[in-house]
Write a structure and sequence with these properties.
The protein is α/β, with parallel strands linked by helices. The protein folds into 2 domains: 14-191, NAD(P)-binding Rossmann-like Domain (Rossmann fold, 3-Layer(aba) Sandwich), CATH 3.40.50.720; 194-347, N-(1-d-carboxylethyl)-l-norvaline Dehydrogenase, domain 2 (Orthogonal Bundle). Helix content is 48%, strand content 11%. It has helices spanning 22-32, 45-54, 76-80, 95-102, 127-134, 152-155, 170-180, 193-215, 220-240, 251-262, 267-276, 281-288, 293-308, 313-324, 328-336, and strands at 14-18, 37-41, 70-73, 85-88, 111-114, 143-147, 161-167, 185-189. The two termini are 35 Å apart.
Length: 349
């Protein structure tokens, strides 16, 4: 029987949260409410100053107040000094540059945990691989990832949520499980870091597809088909890269897929719907001031699957819409008329 954890025990530990977007803000508040000294890094000086004085983030989750033990700064050296845990919560396309910026200020004993979902376009690397490639080997055993169905809007309002932590070192995963666990945020461990990261990244592509289906006016049957067959091709790629198939049936796979494909908070689903209704990526970006993670991840995963000879028809269809100008309705027609297949083939049976 496991040891019971005192979830709100006050502790004298410093945690650095790198990235002051909505998810970074939610993570910072969650950790601060457990009693940790949280230092939130914002790239923009103006945002950091405003958030520190207003005691909330003026750009994201504006209604969420900061506990007194959150300090916001744009000084990366100040934020990282003495941090026991460094939580990276930045867009996947900016991860490498951020790690390069902070690596000279990291404490050698710090645990580095990525809460970012995505695949790097140029290298096709997962976020833990990007981090490891930029840091010295001494950090390899201290790198971890957290991924799951965790909309920042819901976590910040203490709506019960669950997620998964995975690390190269089991003790690191257990320590992060203890640190992040609260009565409304439940953490499970999973040793399959490849599968945990791939699930979190690839489900965004399927969310784009379900959004396109919604935008075309299709129904529940179509959405369910895309989600189920999307899970199959996510698993197919995972198996090829060394992941465990059961990981994709868990929170970082199916769980995150369900949330992202159906939620009103999902930028990826919303982006897909707007594209199907005739908007361009440029117009969507101008309206939302951000690009959905799945747009860039789709390009990386499409290229990776093609390179490795892994069949991913939904991912390919989304790529054709985003990067080749194909109409979503034509893609649906082609997907429906593909040659007959065995349902379990993608799962390795």
């Amino acid at each position: 029987m496991g040891k019971k954890v005192n979830l709100f025990q006050m502790v004298d530990k410093k945690i650095a949260v790198i990235g002051a977007g909505s998810w970074g803000t939610a993570v910072a508040v969650l950790l601060a409410e457990k009693g940790f000294s949280v230092f939130l890094w914002a790239r923009d000086d103006k945002l950091a100053g405003s958030a520190q004085s207003l005691r909330h983030n003026p750009c994201y989750l504006k209604s969420v107040s900061f506990p007194e033990n959150i300090e916001v700064s744009s000084d990366v050296a100040y934020v990282l000094k003495g941090a026991e845990v460094v939580a990276l919560v930045v867009p996947s396309h900016g991860m490498r540059d951020v790690v390069r910026r902070l690596k000279n200020y990291l404490d050698i004993s710090s645990i580095i945990v990525s809460l970012t979902k995505g695949i790097e376009i140029d290298t096709h690397a997962r976020m833990s691989e990007v981090i490891a490639s930029e840091l010295s080997n001494v950090f390899y055993e201290k790198i971890a990832v957290i991924s799951g169905p965790n909309h920042a809007e819901e976590v910040s309002h203490k709506i019960p949520s669950t997620t998964v932590v995975s690390a190269h070192n089991k003790e690191v995963a257990l320590k992060l499980q203890d640190i992040f666990m609260t009565p409304y945020f439940r953490i499970y461990t999973n040793p399959d870091i490849i599968g945990v990261e791939l699930g979190g990244a690839t489900k965004n592509i399927i969310a784009l597809a379900t959004g396109m289906s919604d935008g075309l006016g299709y129904g529940d049957n179509t959405r369910a088909a895309l989600m189920t067959r999307g899970l199959a091709e996510m698993t197919h790629l995972g198996l090829d890269l060394g992941a465990q198939p059961l990981t994709f049936a868990g929170l970082s796979g199916m769980g995150d897929l369900i949330a992202t494909c159906t939620s009103r908070y999902s930028r990826n689903r919303d982006t897909g719907e707007k594209i199907a209704k005739g908007m361009t990526l440029e117009e969507i970006s101008a309206e939302t001031r951000m690009v959905a993670e799945g747009v860039m991840t789709n390009k990386a995963v499409y290229e990776l699957a093609k390179k490795r000879g892994v069949e991913m028809p939904i991912t390919t269809a989304v790529y054709q819409v985003l990067y080749e100008g194909k109409h979503p309705r034509d893609c649906v027609s082609e997907l429906m008329q593909r040659g007959a297949k065995d349902e379990l083939r993608a799962f390795g049976y």
